[in-house]
Amino acid sequence: MKIVVTGGAGFVGSTLCLQLREKYPQYEIVAFDNLKRRGSELNLIDFQKNAIDFIHGDIRNNEDLHALGSFDVLIEASAEPSVTAGLDSDPTYVINNNLYGSINCFNACIKNDAKLIFLSTSRVYPIETIENALFNEEETKFLFIDNQEIKGISSKGISEELALEGARSFYGTTKLSSELFIHEYAAFYGLKAAVTRFGVIAGPRQMGKTDQGVVTLWMAKHYWNQSLKYIGYGGKGKQVRDLLHVDDLVELIDFQIHNIEKFQGKVYNVGGGLQNSASLQEMTAICEKITGNKIQIDEVAETRTADLRIFITDNTKIETEIGWKPKKSVETIFKDIYLWIQENEKQLESILK
Fold first, then answer.
1. Distance CA 150, CA 15 (A)
2. What residues have CB less than 8 Å from 139, skipping those under 6 apart?
3. DSSP codes, 174-217
4. For residue range 250-293, what is the model confidence (pLDDT) as tens digits?
5. Which residue in 8, 84, 302, 313 could disulfide with 13, CB within 3.0 to 4.6 Å?
6. Using an 8 Å Cβ cutoff, are 138 and 94 in contact?
7. DSSP 25-86
8. What is the residue-averaged pLDDT of the chain?
9. 24 SS3 class
10. 274: how many CB neighbours lie within 10 A of its CB?
11. Contact (Cβ atoms closer than 8 angstroms) between residue 171 and residue 94
12. How far apart are CA 335 and CA 217, in angstroms?
């Protein structure tokens, strides 16, 4: 089997390439990436060591995709992942990459009669609807309550039943548009596809920044004793996300590759779930415990555009229908990131510090 991973030198893409190579040494694994994100070039060394082919290309260019030759599976992990992309600047790149680039990938799958594993996002759900949900403010965090007026939100989090009408960011809109095109390709061209809406994915290999990769950013700032900010919702750090260890994601995608018929025509929300959720305050406490460092954290009351007070993934549908559950805890995620930074301190210092 030949598996192509677009965005293959990114955080999720590189982890997929390396873990699939280790588990299936008989498979041909190809990482395809334009190396736009800083730090992605570091993964090329690991690819060489592990006999993973690397093709420097861009999904926006059909010629680059043609250079791949024939393949059996394409894992589309190449998105511009920042929620703020295009909100304070020209949105052309995020639209061209996440929508038109993805369509080029779908066409390549049809041409090669290949399976598609599409990594979508929890950000397809509308911001205003989520922000209007009822919640409790606890000592260290905000949490949804059960008695909601909105279908698809409960104390467990956000399910696939949440209505999609409303603005969600250019990032979320491009991913939702791609999902809709996948349904068309499946209906009219017979595309075999698995579509998964992932929440916050975290773990080693992520080059974290303020707008994307906050878990790595939080650990890195504690590791190097640098300051942070609680931004928005009063500046108290009570906003919450559920965190999914990248290893749990790889396990699911491995299953999707080999059992795609179970996912055809369906969309699943996938994340750490309520049991693996944490507020910024709680993330700080975990980082302090692991590193032994207490850093300065300033408070900025003003909320950023397109931010959410709470996002927790309700995994009920996939747990019930597929039997998949996340295995790794929030603390394990932070410990693994800490060990990765410690092991690669010299290379990462100029990127994460």
1. 37
2. none
3. HHHHHHHHHHHHHHHH---EEEEEE-EEE-TT----SSS-HHHH
4. 999 999 999 999 999 999 999 999 999 999 999 999 999 999 99
5. 8
6. no
7. TTSEEEEEE---STTGGGHHHHHHHTT-EEEE--TT-HHHHHTT---SEEEE------TTTT
8. 96
9. coil
10. 18
11. yes
12. 14
**CA atoms of 169 and 245, how far apart (whole Å):** 24
Q: 261 is written with which tokens?
A: 């018929």
Structure tokens that stand for 166 in this block: 């409303």
Tell me the CA end-to-end span of the chain in Å, nearest whole number.
39
Confidence of residue 135 (pLDDT cuts 50, 70, 90): very high
Amino acid at 187: A
d(CA 145, CA 209): 31
Q: Other CB atoms closer than 10 Å to residue 193's CB: what's the count?
A: 23
Q: What are phi and psi of 314, to 5 degrees?
A: -90, 110
Tokens of 271: 């994340």
Report DSSP state, residue 97: I
- Enter the pTM of the model: 0.96
d(CA 78, CA 97): 8
Q: Are 49 and 74 in contact (CB under 8 A)?
A: no
Q: How many residues make up the chain in this entry?
A: 353
Query: Are 239 and 310 contacting, i.e. CB atoms less than 8 angstroms apart?
Result: yes
